[in-house]
Amino acid sequence: MVLFIEYPKCSTCKKAKKWLIDNNIEFEGRNIVEDTPNKKELKKWITESKKDIKKFFNTSGLKYKELNLKEKLPNMTDDEKLKLLSSDGMLIKRPLLITDNNILTGFKEKEWQETLIK
Questions:
Q1: Quick check: helix, strand or coil at residue 53?
Q2: CA 6 to CA 13: how far, in whole Å?
Q3: CB within 8 Å of 64: residues ≥ 6 apart
Q4: C-beta atoms surrounding 21 within 10 Å
Q5: Which residue of 9, 76, 94, 109 is surrounded by the most CB atoms within 10 Å?
């Protein structure tokens, strides 16, 4: 099963969701704010994705800028970063797409196509 984690008001998330529907890909939806991924989930996904933890931060978000995270993140431990990410869904890059074999951050149609349509 594909897990699609989104913020419903986000235009990129809407576009990604439409793409999933148009391509007949079954998914389970989850609101990133109402059901924010916990520290354990995030750690698992970051490890499995083999991506730097910074790729999971919504660097263009207001909250990221308000908290001055561009300056703070380099001095934080991974554990502190995980705790911060799990504290507020608006800090997490979205949408997140979790499959059995892949974890995708953001919506890059080509990447999603290559991952989901074989």
A1: helix
A2: 6
A3: 57, 58, 70, 91
A4: 11
A5: 94
* Pairwise CA distance, residues 48 & 7, whole Å: 22
**Pick from 107, 86, 88: which is nearest to 97 by CA?**
107
* Residue tagged 């999603």 (tokens): 112
Domains of the chain: 2-116 (3.40.30.10)
What angle (nearest 5°) sits at the alpha carbon of residue 102, between those of residues 92 and 47?
65
CB-count burial class (<10 Å; 0-12, 13-18, 19+) for 79: exposed
Q: Among 33, 10, 7, 39, which residue's Cα sits nearest to residue 88?
A: 33
Per residue in 66-117, pLDDT (tens digit) is 999 999 999 999 999 999 999 999 999 999 999 999 999 999 999 999 999 8
pLDDT, the chain, mean: 96
**What does DSSP say about strands 103-105 and 96-98: parallel, antiparallel, or unpaired?**
antiparallel
Rounded Cα distance between 42 and 39, Å, is 5
